[in-house]
Amino acid sequence: MKITHTEGESNQSAARRTWAEKHPDAATRNLLKRDADAFMHQSLSSPCVSTIAKAEGIWIEDTAGRRYMDFHGNSVHHIGYGHPRLVAAIKAQLDTLPFAPRRFTNAPAVELAEKLGAIAPEGLNKVLFTTGGSDANEVALKIARAATGRFKTISFWDAFHGAGFGAASVGGEATFRSHIAGPLMTGTEHVAPFNCYRCPYNHAGPETCGLACAGMVDYVLGREGDVAAVIAEPMRAVPVVPPPGFWKAVRAACDRHGALLIMDEIPTGLGKTGRMFAFEHDGVVPDIVTLGKALGGGILPIAAVIARHDLDVCGDFAIGHYTHEKNPVTARAALTTLQIIEEEGLVARSAALGAYAIERLRNFAPQSPYVGDVRGRGLMFGVEIVEDRGSRLEAPARAERIYYRSLEAGLSFKISAGCVLTLSPPLTIGREELDAALSIVETAILAEGG
After folding, report:
1. CA distance 35 to 41
2. How far is the C-alpha of 104 from the C-alpha of 19, rounded, in Å?
C-alpha cells in the first residue's frame, strides 16, 4: 500500500531533524531560522533543508563550508553555476544596455528570438519571452484558444506545468491543486500519464498493451470534440520515459481532431535528455514549445514560447505583455547560454554521459532488492526505491534515508514521486565527478541492507 500523506510528512520531518542534529553549527541554524520566520511556508520550499553560500560549476557550498555536488539545481544549471563566459556576457550587457521598455526593441532580444527559431524544428519560428515557465505555458494556452476558437485542454495527472492558476489547472500534481479553494480553470480534462512500470493494467510494455495510454488521449479528444490543445511534458522529469510510439499516436490523434500539441520542455529542453529537445527522441514535432529554467544559464530568469509561424494570430490583443519581455540582459544571458551549449558540445556530452550513468546503475541494481527501476534519458535519470522488486511497493522512507546519506557524503539531488532518486547533473560534469556521485548513491542504497 502506498504511504499516506501524513506518514510521508512524519518520515520527512524525522529525517530532517536527524540531519539538523548532525550539523548544529550556528551559521546554519541562524539562517534557517531567519528563513522560516521571514518566508511564507509552502510544500517543497520552506522551511528549507539547508543553506547555500556559494555556487560554482557543479558544486554548491553551505554557510558552514560543506560542499555538495548538485544533481538537482531546479533544472537551471545545464552549463553549471557561474559559467565564466556567461558572467562576462551579462556584465558587458549591463554596461551597454541594462533595460529596454517593451515597446522598444533591442538587438539581444531579436537575436535570441532568431536563434530559438533556428534551433527549433522547421516552421516553429515565432517567439515570445516571459519571465518564468509557468507564464510561458499560460501564453501557449492563450495562443491555442485564439487559433482554434476552443477552450478545452487535455493534460496528464501528475504532470507539472507551473504554479500559475492556468498552469496549475492543466497540471496534475496534487501539491499544486489540492488546497486551492473553489474551482480551477474550466475545461481542463486530465488522463492517466504514461508509465509502463507503474501501469496497473499492464507493465510489460507497449508491445502488449497496444498503447492504451495514448488511446485514452484519442478517446477524450473524440469524446469532447472541442479541445484546443493537448499540453504535456515530452518526458516526465520524475523521470518517466514515454513508451515507443506514444507521441506519434498522440500527434496523429491531435491532427485527426483538430487540436494543437503543446510540448512543455521547461525542465527537459536544451540538451538535458541528450537531444536539444526531448520530443526529438520520439520523432514528432509539436505546434508550440515552451522553454525556461536553464534558458537563463542558471543566473537569470527567462522563459520562451516558440510557435508555428501560422499561429501568430494574436496581434489584436495582449497574450503576454510582461514588463521584462524584451529585457536585453536576460536575453543576452539566454543567447550566451545557447551558444555555450552548442559550442561546447553539451548535447552530445549529455547523451554519452547519460547512457553511461544509466547503464552503470542498471548493472548495479541487482545488488539491492530495493532498486525497482532505473530509467531516464541523457543526464536526467532516476532510481526508483521500492520495498521489494516483486511487489513494486513504493518505499518513501527508504528513499529519504538514502537521500540524507547521500547529502552527508556530498551529493544533493531530488526525490520525486515520493520514492524516485532523481539525478540531474549539469551537462558540464566530468566523467570522474559523475562516477564519484554514482558511487555515493550506490553506497547509500547498499546501506539499507537487504
Report:
1. 10
2. 51
The pLDDT > 90 percentage for the chain reads: 76
**Cβ–Cβ under 8 Å, residues 295 and 266:** no
Cβ contacts of 1 within 8 Å, gap of 6 or more: 393
User: In which region does residue 283 sit, left (phi positive, over 0), alpha (psi from -120 to 50) or beta (all else)?
Assistant: left
Domains of the chain, with CATH numbers?
5-79+346-446 (3.90.1150.10), 84-343 (3.40.640.10)
- State whether the Cα torsion 294-431-379-418 is positive or negative: negative
What are the strands, taking DSSP E only, across 119-251?
A: 124-130, 152-156, 188-191, 227-232
Under a CB-based contact definition with an 8 Å cutoff, are residues 95 and 315 in contact?
Answer: no
CB distance 232 to 262 below 8 Å:
yes
124-144 pLDDT, tens digit each: 999 999 999 999 999 999 999
68 three-state secondary structure:
strand
Q: Which helix (H) or strand (E) holds 343?
A: helix 328-343
Q: How far apart are CA 297 and CA 275, in angstroms?
A: 17
pTM (two decimals): 0.94
